[in-house]
Each structure stands twice: as C-alpha cells, then as structure tokens.
Amino acid sequence: MTEIERLKDIVKTLRSENGCPWDKAQTHVSLKAACIEEASEVIRGINILEETKDPENLKEELGDLLLQVMFHAVMAEEERLFTFDDIAKTVSEKMLRRHPHVFGDMKYASEEELREAWNEIKKEEKAGKEWQEEYLKAAFKEASELITRAEVRKGFR
pTM here? Predict the structure, then answer.
C-alpha cells in the first residue's frame, strides 16, 4: 500500500459510520477555511525553509494541505462526483498539454514564444468555460476574509 492509499484509507475511516463525528460532519463548504489556512501555513513553511534551510515545517504543512485535498477527494467520491485518481489524472494531463516542449516535439525559439504558447494552450483549455472566471473575484475576496478570520482566531489581529 502506498502512503497516498494509506492516507485515503485514514480519511475514509474518519468519515465512516464509526469514524470521528467532526470529520463526518465536514463538507466542501465547511472546509474552505481550513484549506486557505493550510495553504497559508505552506507559505510559512517555505519562508522557514528559505531562511533556516530546515525543511521539517514545510514537509508537515504540505502534508496538511494534501490532507485537505484528500478530504475533498473522498467527499467527492462519496457524492459520486470524482475520485482522487481523477484529480491526479486531470492535473497530469494538464501538465503534459501545457509542456509540449518537454513531453512532445515542440520547440520554442524564445522564452517569450514559450509564454505565448502557454497562454494560448490555457485559452484553449478554458474555451466554453469562460463563465467560471466570474467566480474568481468573489473567491479571492472570500479567501481574504477567511485569512482575516484565521488571523483573529490565532491572535494575530
């Protein structure tokens, strides 16, 4: 069993009939604050690594962020929406598509040409999904509010 499989089994057990009441009660919406907080703690881990060369906090915080991803994946699987493997496949395919100069035969003459091609690939990926962009501004505002609440909860404000 891989560590990813082990983590998935742990989350499934936490959300099972005999699992933890708090974990069973969580939803995609209820975990928004934890997700943004864990992402902020990854930034802290990166800063600690940069200043001290100590990787332990970054490793721990990346694990906590991975737990958030796994929680959402398990809940989505429970809801028959998608699986963790679907998430991994989606991002893997995106990286292959966006890097034809690495995983294909495409050659770019300059960084600028590469950047233009990247933007064109992203534009093609988003075709027909432009409506999703309308949600981004509100998501940034909500993330900012969630961070402010976390700062208050942690005594930073």
Answer: 0.91
